[in-house]
Amino acid sequence: MARWLITGCSTGFGREIARAALAEGHRVVVTARRAESVADLVDEFGDRALALALDVTDPAQIAAAVTAAGEAFGGIDVLVNNAGHGYLSAVEEGEDVEVRKLFDVNYFGAVDMIKAVLPAMRARGSGHIVNISSMTGLVANPPNAYYSSTKFALEALTEALATEVRPLGIKVTAIEPGAFRTDWATRSMKESATTIADYADVAARKDLIKQFADHLPGDPRKVAEAVLMVTGLEEPPLRLLLGRDVLKAMRDKIAATTASIDEWKSVTKDVNFPAS
């Protein structure tokens, strides 16, 4: 059985992944900003669960969590970077302070967690880093420009990191869920306080996201099952799309991108020096 550390376990994907891993017999460090919000998992699963307070923007708490995992379980085999939140805004409406906070949690928090676990994974020659991305990390639309930017950055990091650490025996996977019935669009959502009338269409999209939050098609428990399946593979995928909506969105983007490449290929190819 593996030793896991999962960030953002109070609700949503993080909680479902933690519960599934524990139910399968793994040992799991379950973390959240407030340890009491995950204490029930310790009550349910006993000493195979370790509940810790972890703010992924706090380097001291990250170091303490990794140390505690080593002391309790002997190390971390699987890191799941799940902590994050949304931010609804037109680009012009976005507030710098809030956007930077968004990147601190969604992107730099994951970066710092990865850097904290890699030394021990390198020493052992094994490990699996799972980054919870999003459909919006593949296809960007309003009002998620800034949230999508954090996930696009996480996608790039995942892709490059996978190449760096593959020779060291470490696996890396991005999980890319579509629309799932979590609290992402409610309790975990922020939005710009600034509104500009010209972006009424963006505001309408915000309202739709909130209106349908409790009626989305995706089952978070099935995401957890998929994560457990992937982490048990000798050759896991670099990316795993989850949901019919993200599958369609990605196929549509690939088709549109291919068409654009073909349309403009003469310009694309005509930029080298003549002898090239």
Structure characterization notes:
The protein has 276 residues and is of the alpha/beta class. It has one domain: NAD(P)-binding Rossmann-like Domain (Rossmann fold), CATH 3.40.50.720. 48% of the residues lie in helices and 16% in strands. The protein contains nine helices and nine strands. The chain has helices at residues 12-23, 39-45, 59-73, 96-124, 145-165, 200-211, 220-231, 244-263, 265-269; strands at residues 3-6, 27-32, 49-53, 78-81, 86-88, 127-132, 170-177, 189-191, 239-242. The strands form two sheets. A seven-stranded parallel β-sheet has the order 3-2-1-4-6-7-9, sandwiched between helices. Strand 2, helix 2 (39-45) and strand 3 (49-53) form a beta-alpha-beta unit. It starts with a strand and ends in a 7-residue tail after the last helix. The mean pLDDT is 95.
Which short descriptors sum up this protein?
single chain; 276 residues; alpha/beta; Rossmann fold; 7-stranded parallel beta sheet; two-stranded parallel sheet; 9 helices
What is this structure's SSE topology?
Blueprint (H helix, E strand, L loop, with lengths): L2 E4 L5 H12 L3 E6 L6 H7 L3 E5 L5 H15 L4 E4 L4 E3 L7 H29 L2 E6 L12 H21 L4 E8 L11 E3 L8 H12 L8 H12 L7 E4 L1 H20 L1 H5 L7
Parallel strand pairs: 1-2, 1-4, 2-3, 4-6, 5-8, 6-7, 7-9
Helix pairs in contact: 1-7, 3-4, 4-5
Provide a concise account of the structure shown.
With 276 residues, this protein is an alpha/beta fold. Helix content is 48%, strand content 16%.
How many domains? 1
Overall shape: globular
| CATH level-two architecture | 3-Layer(aba) Sandwich
Q: What level of helicity do the residues show?
A: 40-55%
Count of helix runs: 9
Low-confidence stretches: none
Mean pLDDT across the residues is 95
Please identify which CATH superfamily we are dealing with. NAD(P)-binding Rossmann-like Domain
Total number of β-strand segments? 9
Strand order of the largest sheet: 3-2-1-4-6-7-9
Strand content: 15-25%
Helix and strand pattern: EHEHEHEEHEHEEHHEHH
Characterize the main sheet.
Answer: 7 strands, parallel
State the end-to-end CA separation.
Answer: 55 Å
CATH class: Alpha Beta
- How does the helix and strand content classify structurally? alpha/beta
| CATH structural fold name | Rossmann fold
